[in-house]
Design a protein that fits this description.
Layout lengths: L12 H10 L6 H13 L3 E4 L6 H12 L3 E5 L6 H4 L1 E3 L1 H13 L5 H8 L5 E3 L1 H5 L9 E5 L6 H13 L1 E4 L3 E4 L5 E6 L7 H4 L3 E4 L5 H11 L5 H14 L10 H13 L7 H11 L3 H26 L1
Parallel strand pairs: 1-8, 1-9, 2-5, 5-8
Antiparallel strand pairs: 3-4, 6-7
Pfam family, one: AAA_5
GO molecular function: ATP binding; ATP hydrolysis activity
Organism: Mesorhizobium ciceri
């Protein structure tokens, strides 16, 4: 495993922008600004936006660029403290108790101190995120918070207030240095204002055509330039029509990569029809594109790019 070498946070907005760009994350200045402020003010960053626009990637890039551990808490319905914070290794504790009983050690208080020691504590993401050393605090990604219930949201609010966790058997464990917290949500439900007030907020939108083309060039450098331009233009227009789920940046990258694997240098109606499942994941959306909408968009893309040459 490669040893991480923590680096200091950027000192300016321009340095933050360069840090993201150096890791092949094409960000606009508004995102770089709020990220810079989050690092300087040591406040959690709350990123909201549609699925597939690159929210999770920001945390990954930040951890890589700053040489920090990335600790990820993937949220889901029913997430509780034992899965998110800590639990005891009950099986190992029972074995230890049986061994001590067999050895004739029956002093209850000593046995409790032994089995409820850190040796048997299983650290889950929240507790793990609080154990970083000064100057090397990890990046703590709380991904898709909107999938959890309000009870866990309230618990998380307490954690973000003091960056400490109380384990009844051990006492309070407090972060030597608070982690760099990135919270993402796809807005499937509203997050309580009390939690948002603890954070700096940024809406991550779909990129414009110029920025999305730069993303494709960085992520799929082997793609034909003409093909990349057509892919981005096609998807930009696709987002303007009413679909159940419009494609995100992740789908743009996947589509460009898939077409490159097929040795395509430009889009054509047959190729769009054959590979539309890379872009769209719902049959109603696919049917609409195959019933003529896709051909219309492709014709517009071809005409506009030809006129621009």
């Amino acid at each position: 495993m490669t040893e991480l070498k923590p680096r200091a946070a950027p000192r300016t907005i321009d340095e933050t922008l360069d840090l993201l760009t150096g890791a092949d994350y094409v960000a606009d200045r508004s995102l770089a600004t709020v990220l810079f402020l989050s690092l300087r003010m040591k406040r959690p960053l709350f990123l909201e936006g549609e699925a597939g626009v690159g929210k999770t990637e920001i945390a990954k890039v930040l951890a890589q660029a700053l040489g920090r551990r990335l600790i990820r808490l993937q949220c889901y319905e029913g997430l509780d403290v034992s899965s998110a914070v800590y639990e005891w290794n009950y099986a190992a504790q029972m074995i230890e108790i049986r061994m001590e009983e067999a050895a004739g050690k029956v002093e209850r208080s000593a046995m409790e101190r032994n089995v409820f020691s850190e040796k048997y504590l299983i650290r889950r993401p929240v507790l793990d995120a609080l154990t970083g050393k000064a100057g090397a605090a990890p990046v703590f990604l709380i991904d898709e918070l909107d999938r959890t219930d309000e009870a866990f949201e309230a618990f998380l609010l307490e954690i973000l207030s003091d960056f400490q966790v109380t384990v009844p058997e051990l006492g309070t464990i407090k972060a030597e240095e608070p982690p760099i917290v990135i919270i993402t949500t796809n807005r499937t439900r509203e997050i309580h204002d009390a939690l948002k007030r603890r954070c700096l907020y940024h809406w991550v939108d779909y990129p414009n055509a110029e920025r999305e083309l730069e993303i494709v060039r960085r992520k799929v450098p082997q793609a034909n330039q003409r093909l990349s331009a057509e892919v981005v233009s096609f998807i930009q227009k696709l987002r303007q029509i009413e679909l159940f789920k419009v494609p995100g940046v992740a789908e743009t990258i996947d589509w460009a990569g898939a077409l490159t694997e097929l040795d395509k240098v430009a889009l054509d109606p047959e190729t769009v029809s054959d590979t539309i499942g890379v872009l769209l994941k719902y049959q109603d959306d696919i049917a609409r594109i195959e019933q003529g909408e896709g051909r219309r968009i492709l014709n517009e893309v071809k005409a506009e790019l030809s006129a621009a040459e």
